[in-house]
Design brief:
The chain is of the alpha+beta class and 291 residues long. It has helices at residues 8-22, 70-80, 131-148, 153-156, 205-216, 270-283, and strands at 28-29, 38-39, 43-44, 51-52, 94-95, 104-105, 109-111, 180-185, 195-199, 231-235, 255-260, 288-290.
């Protein structure tokens, strides 16, 4: 004979009653008013200290029974005395340490340099005038000036207009993930600043020269002037690149120099240019994190 089919809840309750008769001193009854199930592995609530079964161990209200009034279920949940606190009175907020700012944030935004908390508006080093960070920047500038030497002082004084993490591109270009970032120096005597620029690996040297000039704002009139005044693209080591050749990107970081004429002689060694690029990358970083 096969036993009649029954629900899982009824089978669990029947098993509990049988085990309670066999082991009366084992386990405990559920404290929920409408349950009172004898559970052999009960759960103790860490808020009210009462004992509950598997179905009623959570803080949230239990599911409604069939044809049960929702208001009755809410009152039963309140009478249990273990509802979680929903008030915001105990929540801690972090005040901004910037002078004259009264903003408060629920998440601590800590500056790693000075160790103080700031709001979103003043989280940057320059925004809250971080003294340790400013002293560190002065040390970096002095160290870069000593390392570059006399020939590289002119180049080290050229501050990059952007960072390697945020390269620019010429108007009309649409960079993709396959593009790379290169450092480009403008021609000598130009008011433009060196910058990190998006470059397509499939460009030729001539196409890259046109796009670099457009990104830096350098006027390119190679088709209207003689060869001695035409802008040409050079490597960091001083070697000239031919317009028909593909853009060389085998060296990282790739550093290119725009210059008028056939030779690159600006009184700056390749080592000075590499140190200036490294200094620019280090001096524009940020140490503020959200914790």
């Amino acid at each position: 004979l096969t036993p009649p089919r029954c629900s899982a809840a009824y089978a669990r309750e029947l098993t509990s009653r049988i085990m309670a008769l066999a082991f009366p001193n084992l386990g405990a009854h559920c404290a929920f008013p409408s349950c009172q199930l004898h559970d052999f592995l009960p759960f103790t609530c860490d808020r009210c200290g009462k004992v509950y079964c598997l179905d009623h161990r959570k803080y949230e209200p239990v599911p409604l029974r069939p044809r049960q009034d929702p208001n009755d279920a809410i009152w039963v949940h309140i009478e249990r005395g273990c509802a979680p606190q929903t008030s915001n009175a105990s929540r801690s907020y972090f005040a901004c340490s910037a002078q004259g700012c009264s903003q408060k944030t629920a998440t601590a935004i800590v500056c790693r340099s000075c160790g103080r908390c700031f709001c979103v508006q003043h989280r940057g080093h320059a925004e809250h005038a971080c003294a340790p960070w400013m002293r560190h920047q002065e040390k970096l500038k002095k160290k870069a000036a000593r390392a570059v030497g006399t020939k590289g002082k002119k180049l080290a004084s050229l501050a990059f207009r952007n960072t390697a993490a945020r390269p620019i591109h010429a108007p009309g270009d649409r960079p993709s993930d396959s593009w790379v970032t290169v450092a480009v120096y403008p021609p000598s005597g130009s008011v433009a600043k060196p910058a990190y620029i998006h470059a397509n690996p499939q460009w030729s040297v001539g196409k890259a020269l046109d796009r670099f000039c457009a990104a830096l704002g350098v006027v390119n009139q190679n088709n209207q002037v003689d060869a001695a005044q035409q802008i040409r693209l050079f490597r960091n080591d001083g070697s000239q690149l031919q317009n028909a050749d593909p853009l060389p990107l085998d060296q990282q970081p790739a550093i290119f120099v725009l210059e008028r004429g056939m030779n690159l002689d600006r009184g700056e060694s390749p080592k000075a240019r590499r140190k200036a690029v490294k200094y620019s990358q280090n001096s524009t970083g940020s140490d503020c994190t959200i914790s």
